[in-house]
Each structure stands twice: as structure tokens, then as C-alpha cells.
Amino acid sequence: MDATMVVPPWFEPLLTTSFFNVCRVHGDAARSECNMFCLDCNNEDAFCFYCRSSRHKDHRVIQIRRSSYHDVVRVSEIQKVLDISGVQTYVINSARVLFLNERPQPKSGKGVAHICEICGRSLLDPFRFCSLGCKGMSRRLVSSRHQQEEELREGSQQDMYPATPSPPASNARRRKGIPHRAPFAS
Question: What ranges does the record give for the region Disordered, renumbered to this chain (predicted)?
């Protein structure tokens, strides 16, 4: 997600959704953990296998998996809908995955060749980010920097061309008996 790429509306909700809760509707069923996310229903909560069949049958849905208590998504699913270049991938259970959000780790020590540009986590390969969340954060930082630069440019133009002051507000309800005369010229 470089500075020019448009972030899909489902990206932020995907990163902030809580997965692996028991479904409120299908809690008694065998596959009722909420590990699915719909890309077509913006801001939709995570849902289970049974909710997918009933409410999201014809939608683009990705399945979230767990690795060491962290949410991951298969590369084969997410790369169809999002630019994941620069994000470290891992092979877990013979499937290539990437982490949704950064994982806490002490800052990398000396001798580490590759680190995440956002959180400083050590990386195995020459990637820029440890997770989709860190890549998204880099985009927000770039976007914020561009916005600040734009505001600075506008501010310097305003200094060059000061705005004309607005006329004073007229007092529509003048008090009776107070004369409003022009001042005497000296």
C-alpha cells in the first residue's frame, strides 16, 4: 500500500475485528467460532461458518486463522484483494500466511539484518513490514505527512496573500436613544 494506493473500506475493520469468539446465533454448533470476515459488508463483525452460508453466500469472504495466538490470513486469499508486497510471509501448516497485526516483541538487537519499518520487529527476509497492520500504518504515516505538507503549503500561501478581513457584524438591534454619529474630523 504505497502512498498512491487507495485503501479498501474493509481494511481498517479487518485489522480491528475481534476473531475467534463463539457465534451468538450458532453457539451450540460444532463450527461456531467467528473466524470469517466479509469484504463486501463493511464494518461487519466476524462471523462463523454457518453465518457465511446464510448471510454471506455470494460475498467475498476470507477466513482468519490462528498462529501462536495471533491472527493470520492465507496469502492465497488476501493477495487477490490487497497489495501485500513488502509484508513478511511465513509457512504455517504448509500454507503461506501473513499476520494481520504486529506482534509484541522487544526491539531487535544488534546483528539483525532486517527489521519492520514501523514496529522494529526483526524479520527473516528482506521485507519492509511484519504485518498488514504495520504496512497500513506506513500508509497512514505517509498520508498524514502529505496532509501536513499540504497544510504548510496552504499556510505559506496565506502568508503571501493575507485574507481580507470580513466586515464587522452589524448590530441589527440598536438600542433606542443612543445616537450613532460619525466622529468629528480633526
Answer: 145-186
Q: For domain 9-65, give the fold.
A: Double Stranded RNA Binding Domain (3.30.160)
List, by residue range, all CATH 3.30.160 domains of the chain.
9-65
C-beta of residue 101 within 8 angstroms of C-beta of residue 15: yes
Please name the residues in contact with 162: beta carbons below 8 A apart, sequence gap of 6 or more. none
Give the helix/strand (H/E) hosting 153.
helix 132-160
Hey, what amino acid is at 36? M
Q: What percent of the chain has pLDDT over 70?
A: 67
The model's pLDDT over 18-40, given as tens digits with 9 standing for 90+, comes to 999 999 989 898 889 999 999 99
- CA distances in angstroms from 156 to 151, 163, 164, 166, listed in the order given: 9, 12, 16, 20
Q: 89: buried, middle or exposed (CB in 10 Å: 19+, 13-18, 0-12)? A: middle
Q: Which of 97, 178, 173, 86 is nearest to 138 (CA)?
A: 86
